[in-house]
Write a structure and sequence with these properties.
Layout lengths: L1 E2 L4 H4 L18 H20 L3 E7 H9 L3 E2 L12 H13 L6 E6 L9 E6 L1 H11 L14 H4 L4 H7 L1 H9 L1 E7 L5 H11 L8 H8 L3 H15 L1 H10 L2 H5 L2 H15 E2 L4 E2 L6 H13 L7 H17 L6 H8 L8 H12 L2 H5 L8 H19 L1
Helix pairs in contact: 3-5, 7-8, 9-10, 11-12, 11-14, 11-16, 12-16, 14-15, 14-16, 14-17, 17-20, 18-20
Length: 389
């Protein structure tokens, strides 16, 4: 399971991260929960047995070189507005010169696209420390004098190149010092990678599921979503609509991304012909993760135009009908029709759909169950068909 470490119980556990989803992703009926609980822990333990974490040691110089060569990927910030300031950066760099114990870094091994391509590593925990090392060695900031407790007289207001010129022996010693790196190997199950990330990043405030998804399931599709969100937040006119649709806290905790991930998943899994959502088990969370994982592994191919239409339509409907109590569940049922051939007709009949008595019954109890989800899709399909006649 884990080589060269006795920290398994602190790193890998079987409990899911707290997932405070506004879309009730984990809703069960009592019967379904009883039916699944007996096998759930066993299946988690089986995945745990397949997970392998290897302890390595990398020098500061080696870490810097890997980042420079794009072999160690720091990735985008998964927490908005959570970036170290100069005080923390200075204190951390001084700690390296002091040669005190630095908490280990956790990375996920990412296989190359071909047998000839070298594996890369993505940071799971320790991004701010690695970013600070990179920035300091690139002379991007000087050490703040008031934050230096042991080397203020030597290093105050100096950048790396200045310190290196004046104190070459000390600098060489720091560059050759090593950090403990725990590598979650490439063949480890996706579930345990997801769970480890959640546990390592709990801290004072637990990460929500969509922050974790954004960090783990990176792909061209998730990048399209990021570009779409950033464009809407940067443009003054679009920002007004966007912030009327999603609250400030939604945006901070990536619940806006969650809505878009959800639309993508229901678009992919909803079968208009059978009027059912394929492989849905009353747990939207699982389905969303599976779809994002399949997209990442290139088992599902969605063009940029397709994704853009899904995102634009989701945002438009959610904004226009944001005061409708169950609009998110309805958007799930609308998702398979977010296509050029259907979109105009769908938008024209949404007022009728919202007031439909059959659909209203699916919201009375446990709206996320398989039965209710499929019943809603079936009814929306029927209403679309009736309007084509």
């Amino acid at each position: 399971m884990i080589e060269n470490t006795n920290a398994a119980e602190n790193v890998i556990d079987t409990e899911y991260a707290e997932e405070n989803l506004q879309l009730a992703e984990n809703q069960y009926t009592e019967e379904e929960e009883i039916e699944q609980v007996e096998n759930e822990f066993k299946s988690k333990r089986e995945l745990l047995e397949k997970t392998k974490i290897v302890k390595q040691t990398w020098s500061i110089l080696e870490i810097f070189q890997k980042i420079k060569d794009n072999k160690l990927i720091l990735g985008p910030d998964y927490q908005r507005m959570e970036i170290w300031g100069i005080d923390k950066k200075t204190a951390f760099i001084e700690s390296l010169f002091m040669e005190i114990m630095i908490p280990p870094i956790y990375v996920v091994e990412v296989p190359g696209n071909s047998i000839l391509e070298e594996n890369k590593y993505e940071v799971v925990d320790g991004k701010q420390r690695l970013t600070t090392i990179k920035s300091f060695l690139n002379n991007e900031f000087a050490l703040k004098d008031k934050c230096l407790e042991y080397y203020q007289d030597l290093f105050k207001n100096k950048k790396f190149n200045e310190i290196s010129d004046l104190y070459s022996e000390k600098t060489t010693q720091v560059l050759s010092s090593v950090l403990d790196i725990y590598v979650i190997t490439a063949n480890s199950p996706e579930f345990t990678k997801y769970d480890i990330f959640a546990r390592l990043n709990k801290g004072a405030e637990k990460l929500k599921v969509n922050e974790i998804r954004r960090a783990i399931y990176r792909s061209s599709v998730t990048q399209y979503i990021t570009d779409f969100v950033e464009h809407n937040l940067e443009d003054q006119e679009l920002r007004k609509i966007y912030t009327e649709t999603f609250t400030k806290n939604d945006i901070k905790r990536f619940e806006d991304y969650g809505r878009f991930y959800r639309s993508i998943a229901f678009f992919v899994r909803s079968n208009i012909d059978s009027k059912q959502v394929d492989n849905y088990n009353s747990r939207p969370r699982d389905m969303i993760n599976e779809v994002l994982h399949e997209i990442q592994k290139r088992k599902i191919d969605l063009s940029e135009d397709t994704v853009k239409l899904i995102l634009e339509t989701t945002l438009s409907i959610k904004h226009k009908y944001k005061n409708i109590e169950n609009i998110d569940y309805l958007i799930d049922s609308f998702a398979p029709f977010f296509k050029t051939d259907y979109i105009e007709k769908l938008l024209s009949i949404i007022p009728d759909i919202i007031n439909d008595d059959v659909l209203a019954e699916t919201f009375e109890k446990s709206p996320a169950t398989t039965t209710n989800v499929n019943e809603r899709l079936k009814r929306v399909c029927e209403l679309m068909e009736n309007n084509y006649e």
